[in-house]
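ok trying this again, last paste got cut off
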Amino acid sequence: MACRRLLPLLLLAAAPPSPREMIGVFAGWGAFRQGANCFAIARPIVAQGRVGGYAGIGTWPGKGLRASLHVHLSRRRDRDRPVTLTVAGRRFPLVGSVTDLWAPDAPTDRAIVAALRSARAMSIEAVDTARRPFADTYALAGAATAIDAATLACVAR
């Protein structure tokens, strides 16, 4: 089942022209290296019938980022409404565009990654452009291992 959810990501990862190297698949999360950058990525397990969303934790040495959250929503959001990530009973604000979101700062990034390492699921709640609330939910089995594998792959270079 996890492989079936990851198949579109694996195909995307193998597609030219961006050469990506698969590090491994850990439950529902995949770890990849692309040039100097490394990341763990997963698709939502619940996206209310939509496709295209993903969440990733990446290390981007050229940008000075390590274990940094990036979320691509499964639908466009209303920019005037806040977006919240909930993990392990904690709520974190996210910032960004209508589809791509990040933690607002490095301390929030670190708190999110620490929380998801011991949680079973996380969800991103937003309101779409038609003013309907929605949530993208992710299983976190394998996330910590995928994050560690991606981080180590960047350090090993």
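PB: full thing came through this time. Confidence is low (pLDDT under 50) at residues 1-17.
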